[in-house]
Design brief:
heterodimer, A: mainly beta, 7-stranded mixed sheet, 4-stranded antiparallel sheet, about 0% helix, B: mainly beta, globular
Chain lengths: ~110, ~120
């Protein structure tokens, strides 16, 4: 099975900061990687699909990049409403869906 | 716009069967090309894909849970369901239903907490 390793597990940043989260796959997954934001007490919401495509309605400060085994998720200018936990998610043709462990983002 | 809502008991005894239903509104369960999905989140932890079902009844389960999971659809009620057998405390989690079309999950229900305890 493919393992997804997400880092860091948590971070604290100030409003306006650039925030970067990485997700590493244990083998080549092409671009089959999605990113979600989960606010406390809420269901996750997809932000980025297929590694780099911004979901409709999602602010442009969010972006994703990468392919193969290394992926990056970036918030260009952190806003107060961005607090919560971010997850990467891989999917394959088995089908099997695997989530990363999550990155908890706090606002300083 | 498709919306989802989970329902079912919030407390299940060990060794019994967990049963949840997801009601689909704002669209038909048979249209849109969705795979109707169950995902769970253990308290304070990450997300685990349980499996999904197409409106035809074709199912795909996570191998780690496959022996205990059954999913079904009721097109007349626009609902799909999850049954998880022989539950233990390790099955205590928030259970989400969701739709999946191209490998990602959207929309999601609000989630329902199921506690396994005697």
């Amino acid at each position: 099975d493919i393992q997804m390793t997400q880092s860091p597990s948590s971070l604290s940043a100030s409003v306006g900061d650039r925030v970067t989260i990485t997700c590493q796959a244990s083998q080549d997954i092409s671009n089959r990687l999605n990113w979600y934001h989960q606010k406390p007490g809420k269901a996750p919401q997809v932000l980025i699909y297929d590694a780099s495509y911004l979901e409709t309605g999602v602010p442009s400060r969010f972006s994703g990049s990468g392919s193969g085994t290394e992926f990056t998720f970036t918030i260009s200018s952190l806003q107060p409403e961005d607090l919560g936990t971010y997850y990467c998610q891989h999917y394959d043709n088995s089908p099997l869906h695997t989530f990363g462990q999550g990155t908890k983002v706090d606002i300083k | 716009q498709v919306q989802l809502q989970e329902s079912g008991p919030g407390l299940v005894k060990p060794s019994q069967t967990l049963s949840l239903t997801c009601s689909v509104s704002g669209g038909s369960l048979t249209s849109g090309g969705y795979h109707w999905t169950w995902i769970r989140q253990h308290p304070g932890r990450g997300l685990e894909w349980i499996g999904y079902i197409y409106y035809t009844g074709r199912t795909y389960y996570n191998p780690s849970l496959k022996s205990r999971v059954t999913m079904s659809v009721d097109t007349s009620k626009n609902q799909f369901s999850l049954k998880l057998d022989s539950v233990t405390a390790a099955d205590t989690a928030v259970y989400y239903c969701a739709g999946s079309r191209m490998g990602w999950f959207d929309p999601w229900g609000q989630g329902t907490l199921v506690t396994v305890s005697s």
